[in-house]
Amino acid sequence: LKMTASSLLFLVAAACLMPACSSEEVIGGREVAPHSRPFMASLQYHGEHVCGGVLIHPQWVLTAAHCHHRTPRGQAPTLGITAVRATPSQGPVTSLPSLKLIPFSGFTSDPESHDIMLVKLHAPAKLNKQVQLLQPRPRDDLRAGTKCRVTGWGATDPDVLSPSDTLREVTVTVISRKLCNSPSYYNHQPVITKGLVCAGDAQGQKDSCQGDSGGPLVCGGAFSGLVSGGLKCGDAKKPGVYTLLTRKVQAWIRRKLPRPPAE
Q1: 14 is a domain residue
Q2: Which end of the chain is more exposed for a tag (fewer CB within 10 A), N or C?
Q3: For residue 49, what are the contacts with CB-CB under 8 A and spacing of at least 6?
Q4: Is residue 5 a part of any domain in this protein?
Q5: Do residues 67 and 118 touch, judged by C-beta distance below 8 A?
Q6: Do both 39 and 83 map to the same domain?
Q7: Signal peptide position in this chain (predicted)?
Q8: pLDDT profile of the chain (263 residues), mean per 10
Q9: Confidence (pLDDT) at 207
């Protein structure tokens, strides 16, 4: 979907990965304390949550590129910042219209491996206790067994794929590419390349879900990836798929963002 006439909101919440899983919620997670994840953004259209995102610069949000194709033609998103999903009774602390959407340069030719997008805001967000930055930490790989946190406003019930009103978080475990590509898992549909990583739960009780796309994967305290896709929610053999924030991705981000002023 193309973005043009709506809004992006900064919230505190969950994750999702590919077009098939379009907007996921955290499965088996817990609600986070208000304002405890002040870097979380909610990409919204007409007040409806579509994807998560991360504020990495006062005027830039990092999210998933496939979220760009989920919005109505001629509509732009709005960003808001708050501790809960914005509702009529719980308006966002900050609501900022977007100015420009920049998908990763390789997304068109390889959408599964390059599901990353920068969103430029019309004006910089004012940083305070409730609105803060989270800087990516390049990780070219994550070992199987690594524990990571996923945060988002995605669905909490795989049978009722509606966004959560509160920001939630869950701990997932990285799964080896060999296992994730095996016939009993994804069977190379999609192919889990070196730019992707699978993470979930052996019992299928912990997962990102619809609405979590674009949200952060934080491993060992480092912002290491973004929710990208996956089939089903809470299925042990169909774990969440995440885009790694590799050194190549980090270099692309640095080229797009303005340089800091010289001291």
Answers
A1: no
A2: C
A3: 9, 11, 23, 42, 43, 85, 153, 163, 211
A4: no
A5: no
A6: yes
A7: 1-23
A8: 32 32 52 84 82 92 84 59 40 66 82 87 86 93 96 73 77 96 95 94 82 92 92 86 95 87 52
A9: 77
| Domain range for 45 | 33-133+249-256
Q: Are residues 182 and 117 in the same domain?
A: no
By DSSP bridging, strand 78-81 and strand 48-57 are unpaired
Q: Exactly one of 95, 213, 224, 228 is catalytic; which is it? A: 213
Nearest Cα neighbor of 152 from 5, 259, 50, 237 is 50
Catalytic option among 35, 57, 66, 68: 66
pTM passes above 0.85: no
Pairing of strands 240-244, 196-200: antiparallel
Would residue 80 count as lying in a domain? yes
| Opening angle at CA 120, ends 227 and 209, nearest 5 | 20
Which pLDDT belongs to residue 10? 37
| From 7, 57, 98, 115, the catalytic residue | 115
User: Strand pairing of 94-103 and 78-81?
Assistant: antiparallel
Quick check: is 201 catalytic?
no
Whether residue 115 lies inside any domain: the answer is: yes
Q: What is the CATH number of the domain that holds 188?
A: 2.40.10.10
Token pair, residue 9, equals 């909101």
DSSP letter at 261?
Answer: P
Catalytic residue list contains 184: no
Annotated active-site residue 115? The verdict is yes
pLDDT score recorded for residue 126: 87
DSSP percent split of the chain into helix, strand, coil, nearest 5: 10, 35, 55
Same domain, 118 and 188: no
Please give the pLDDT value at position 92.
46
Number of domains in the chain: 2
